[in-house]
Write a structure and sequence with these properties.
Layout lengths: L1 E12 L2 E12 L3 E5 L6 H8 L7 E6 L2 E2 L5 H7 L1 E3 L12 H9 L7 H6 L6 H14 L14 H13 L5 E5 L7 H16 L3 E5 L3 H7 L2 E6 L2 E6 L1 H5 L2 H8 L7
Parallel strand pairs: 3-8, 3-9, 6-7, 7-8
Antiparallel strand pairs: 1-2, 1-4, 4-5, 9-10
Helix pairs in contact: 3-5, 3-6
């Protein structure tokens, strides 16, 4: 079943077509990768799908309903949540407080009340945050300030904040950027576990080992247009993708 669909998705900035007539489908329960060279249109595509930018043309549906005109917070309320390339944490707050902030979209309390008195959160919401911390392996760091975490754990905390609102579709923008091999493997295993527990994943990532070892289907953009789509093995052996982006010798294992 198609959870997210975009048809003829187009975005112009002046005379530049950052995304041009892209068709994209993400099925319920998949892990789908969106890859391509810098400037290929990946982040613009993410911004269009998540409501941060309005398209110039095309249609987007999520869970069978059109989303054009919806604000990002309305997309979150429907179950589509995204992270960003840059780690967007509340650096002077603890790990637990950051996850509480991530939860505020579905909280019975407003953001201002969260900032003023986070300890007054209802027990069920506190329990949800502790559940997310345990799932992402951050429980032992719950009282540490976000700014004190190593880079890999900061990226994981960003994912935890998104998970707090129980997304149906989680869009991850470069989740392993700047990580060493062990950190990236740990995060991509977390991504697989998130999917196994019922959340569909769409991710942008330049780490091809992570992409090829995690995604079940990959869509390749180049100059704002869809260049190829298929399994990791199909994409890794596609001559056009090799010439435009991967180069020779990319493993799909």
């Amino acid at each position: 079943m198609a959870l997210l669909e975009a048809h003829n998705l187009t975005k112009h900035f002046g005379g530049l077509a950052a995304v041009h007539r892209v068709d994209l489908t993400v099925h319920d329960g998949e892990i789908v990768g969106l890859i391509g060279p810098n400037g290929a249109g990946k982040t613009t595509c993410f911004n269009l799908l998540s409501g941060f930018l309005p398209p110039t043309d095309g249609t987007i549906t999520f869970a069978g309903a059109p989303t054009l005109g919806l604000k990002p917070y309305e997309m979150v309320a429907r179950g589509l949540v995204r992270t960003f390339q840059q780690t967007t944490l509340f650096q002077e707050m603890t790990v637990l407080q950051n996850v509480l902030m991530g939860l505020h979209q579905h909280s019975r309390r407003g953001l201002g009340r969260v900032l003023a008195s986070w300890r007054a959160f209802p027990p069920d919401e506190m329990a949800r945050c502790h559940e997310v911390l345990a799932f992402t392996g951050l429980t032992a760091m719950s009282e540490q300030l976000a700014k004190s975490l190593p880079h890999g754990h900061q990226r994981t905390l960003g994912i935890a904040m998104a998970l707090a609102v129980r997304p149906r579709l989680l869009m991850l923008d470069e989740p392993v950027t700047g990580m060493n091999l062990d950190e990236s493997l740990r995060v991509m295993q977390l991504v697989k576990t998130i999917r196994d527990r019922g959340t569909t994943i769409l991710l942008v990532e330049h780490n091809m080992r992570a992409v090829m070892g995690t995604c079940e289907r990959i869509l390749v953009l180049n100059f704002g247009q869809k260049l190829a789509e298929g399994t990791p093995a199909e994409v890794a052996s596609n001559p056009d993708v090799i010439a435009a982006y991967l180069g020779p010798g990319v493993s799909h294992a």
